[in-house]
Specification:
With 120 residues, the protein is mostly beta strands. It has no helices and 11 strands.
Length: 120
């Protein structure tokens, strides 16, 4: 099992910055991909960024150049540095850890989410 807990959300003005954190616990050694998703009211949950154990990253086009995902393996913590925030970045941000169970199965673990609100 893996548990993830997000923190760092809040209210910020457009153009400002926030850093989100996701603390993972449990069988963290088995996590192979961990990332951030967001969901705005009335919208589907969407990928923001994710990072694999080999350090490779994926970013949504809407945040490229403004967002940086990083992980501190010693602290079992994932970060999302968000700069030049826009009102359209307003959403609940979720951390998701994907754990490999065997060669054919993975399991996803979600946090409770943290609210990010960007005022214009």
């Amino acid at each position: 099992q893996v548990q993830v807990v997000e923190s760092g959300g809040g209210l910020v003005q457009a153009g400002g910055s926030l850093r989100l954190s996701c603390a993972a616990s449990g069988s963290t050694f088995s996590i192979n991909v961990i990332g951030w998703y967001r969901q705005a009211p009335g919208n589907e949950r969407e990928l923001v960024a994710e990072i694999s154990t080999d350090g490779s990253t994926i970013y949504a086009d809407s945040v490229k150049g403004r967002v940086t995902i990083s992980r501190d393996n010693a602290r079992n913590t994932l970060y999302l540095q968000m700069d030049s925030l826009k009102p359209e970045d307003t959403a609940v941000y979720y951390c998701k850890a994907r754990r490999r169970i065997n060669a054919f199965r993975t399991s996803d673990y979600w946090g409770q989410g943290t609210q990010v609100t960007v005022s214009s």
